[in-house]
TrEMBL record:
Pfam family, one: HTH_5
Keywords: DNA-binding, Transcription, Transcription regulation
PROSITE patterns referenced in this protein's UniProt entry, alphabetically: HTH_ARSR_2
Domain named HTH arsR-type: residues: 4-98
Protein's organism: Limnohabitans parvus II-B4
UniProt GO MF annotations: DNA binding; DNA-binding transcription factor activity
Domain of life: Bacteria
Protein name: Transcriptional regulator
SUPFAM superfamilies per record: Winged helix' DNA-binding domain (SSF46785)
Entry annotated with the keyword DNA-binding: yes
Length: 112
């Protein structure tokens, strides 16, 4: 991030805040394989449709997913697949940090 004005930083923080909730990450992961309706997502996540709908509304507001009404159902799909590149980057970083921590712990356990 280059020197962004405060307003832009607020927008970036709001985007990352949407990703800071495990249920929303689970929903994104399910949508990775294709669009789903709220009922399907709720069943796959193990949450109520109302709970999933609240998460989807926030994700739609931030532009992560888009909604399409078909009859009595609303279907959701990923708006920008590059979100998975971001998530994969973060997951890789966390895995590397965990490997380093495990290596440091192993150095101490070999002393006993």
């Amino acid at each position: 991030m280059k020197q962004l004005p405060e307003g832009a930083l607020v927008e970036v923080a709001a985007y990352f805040q949407v990703l800071a909730e495990p249920t929303r990450l689970q929903i994104l992961n399910i949508l990775r394989s294709g669009e789903r309706n709220v009922g399907e997502l709720a069943q796959m996540c193990g949450f109520t449709a109302a709970n999933v709908s609240r998460h989807l509304a926030l994700m739609t507001q931030q532009g992560l997913v888009e909604r399409e009404s078909r009859g009595t159902s609303a279907y959701y799909r990923i708006t920008d697949p590059s979100i998975f590149e971001l998530c994969d980057l973060v997951c890789g970083n966390i895995a590397r940090q965990m490997e380093k921590s495990a290596g440091r712990r192993a150095a101490f356990t070999s002393l006993s």
